[in-house]
């Protein structure tokens, strides 16, 4: 087995990039396949274990993933075979012993391994030397964490070598790049959320200042709003007011939103005008709208929250959708706790349950009497 060793270890100033260079101990040729098996198909790994100065160790291997008989010929311009092409696997393992001793430099990081494999190989027709050729293969792979290390393997296909499957002057350079693990992406564009400090909520449901109205389910009156405010926050409304929909015309008739409960629509519009989210205090100036449409968040029941959740999804209001989802989860948890605390038996008495022994005993007595 041929050994690679590291002759360079470099870390960037920001501590996010670690560069390593591996080479064989001599400039001799390296066979891609061992001759230990009878058919010569046993792959040969070039490997090393290197303890870095960054709190982790490295194991690098380069091995053929196919047998010599599966390699393909490389031909020159005259059609003569001058070399072979094989498929290899390059692997990098970063390890530190056990899960409790992960180096701090790796904690909470995503790991990407990238680099280049360089080597030389001799062209030959079997009768004369056709000179040396240089081969390079670039690679990039995301590392997968395990309990005590990180492993990454990538294929290197069609690696050219001499007729006898040998290469020389092998050089392996690779970099380990660390990036902080991102929290789950919510994909919320905060520029679409209106700060309540702007006071736009005062203009909601003012017929003198609004240019559209919505007729909702069980509403005592239409809800008035501004097309500009709605289109600014919601792609749905943007399409509605600028597209070919009937509602985009300058009609005096209210837009029918009769599938949505009045409290759900009113609170959704309060969010659009002020950035309010469930679980936070209502903005100043919202109480009048809350009274008009009976949409006090503290008194809403689960079906209304669910209706509002579906409305927020349709309007593509992502921040509101996430906040309502948390509200729904909290509501279900509260119901579960109430149900758990009740421990009702629904009138079933303990004496109504018999043990298997009592049933079997009664059956034995019945059979004996028979």
TrEMBL record:
Protein name: BTB domain-containing protein
Pfam families in alphabetical order: BTB (PF00651)
Domain BTB: 210-281
Species for this entry: Allomyces macrogynus (strain ATCC 38327)
Segment forming the signal sequence: none
Gene3D superfamilies given in the database record: Potassium Channel Kv1.1, Chain A
